């Protein structure tokens, strides 16, 4: 208790009391404290002991008070500890019970597990042993069959079948690869026999292959290759065979070009080295000796190439050389070119003349003929597949591209060989001519192809599609021509022209019908009065021109749009060329009949100028740009200028250069007096008949016809107004 009756905090009193403060430290040392207290204190040890005892007593009292104060809490903590201890005892009992159960389970399971493990090991060993025994038995059976087979072959020499023995050897080797049989006595006992049998079969295979190649027997070569196939050695055997022939060719060429052999051959033939030729033989280095050496050289080369080619004219080698003949031809040509280049010496005869070249090339002629035969067969099949002829369906885009791709592949494959490229181009030309013939029979015929005024008929659509497909064939091959040798490109031009002819002929009836319909519309202008002195203001096109422009628009929508690609001046095509001719014909036909209009007043000229503008717009919008029409459009513009110009003088080169003389003369009749009759009126022709006559005669004949009419009518018209203005000009135009 503190002063004033207040209860002090016992912990604070003890901690603040300097006497008891040292006892609160963490590193309190009793011996050190006692020593310092005795040495520094002024009191006796007994007094200090009494003080400490009082402090201990005070501390005990305070502890007792604290225990009394916290009695309930301490009792609760003690009860919790008792319950926890009881719970832990229960857990210990459960753990002990679980451990005992696990020991019992382990004791019960261990014995079956050990038994299963032992039996599994035994089963695995049994399976392994059974598998080994099965393979051993199978191998022994195969060896027994092999022995029987070889024994039969030895007994009956004529019934040898090494292919079966080879198959048995391969099966025996396969058994050894599946499982390791080393260390088994019965297996190792047969190893020596199998090695001897394998050598025997290989010897028979080599002999059969050699005999087959020498006799050019496909049956023997096939039997030998079957043996190697059964031995699982076919790729290696073929590679060795090809390498052997390559080595043979190299050896033959080396011997043929050996200078010492050439010299020896020349001497043996009575040459310049003291042979039978004696003193009269040419000396080394002279022209005669060089020529003789050249003869021997090319004889050897021809023989070497011939022998090498003969060695490969059967079986697989023939197929390889035939399929890869472009490479062989390129090697020949490069070798000959290099030889000529390396032996080019001024004043010395060339190392190779044309006859000698042909002799060397003739050595591989069988391969060349076989290659060209297969080439034309492939391309003809492609052409017949794409265009079967008759009324069958036209090829699809994929079929067409397949045919074009075949042509490109054949031509590009031989592009490096000028000689072979020309020959393959001839084969391509035959295929193209066959295609043109087939396509010609596939074109639709009948009245439907000329029908006009409505939707495109199925026959017209078929011909348009056929023309577009032939145009694609022509375009793709024509683009390839600049990259081909000159002779090959020249060979292909005629077949491509045949393709173009068939394509154009397929759609010519359609364009002819379109032009005929346009001409009928134009002829209706003669039923309209262009000579009225006073006419209402020009508000639109004439009725015939309105019908003509509608017809041209219909042609674009129903027919020209079906071409692929659509005709345009930007892309050259068969359809585009026909559209250009169509546009030119319509313009010239209109201008011809416009020049025949008579009488023609100023109002009529204005209406005619309006019609010309409408025609130009229709052509530009539906057919071609006006500048692409060319000379006919320039003539039409000049004719429009002539309508409002004075009579052209002979020196007026601008109008006369752009316009046909007959057109100028026909128009001048509209300015002449009525007594000066037009040529067709004087002869009793209608405008349509006169136009047909002009199509069938030359310009010179037309001018002569017009001059006759002018001179015949001149006396009757001489006194009429306007005669003197036009007659001299017309007469001059007819004669110049």
UniProtKB/TrEMBL annotation:
Topology term for the membrane: Peripheral membrane protein
Conserved oligomeric Golgi complex subunit 5 N-terminal domain residues: 22-146
Keywords attached to this entry: Golgi apparatus, Membrane
Pfam families cross-referenced by the UniProt entry: COG5_C (PF20649), COG5_N (PF10392)
A GO BP annotation: intra-Golgi vesicle-mediated transport
Any one of the GO CC terms: Golgi membrane
Name of the protein described by the UniProt record: Conserved oligomeric Golgi complex subunit 5
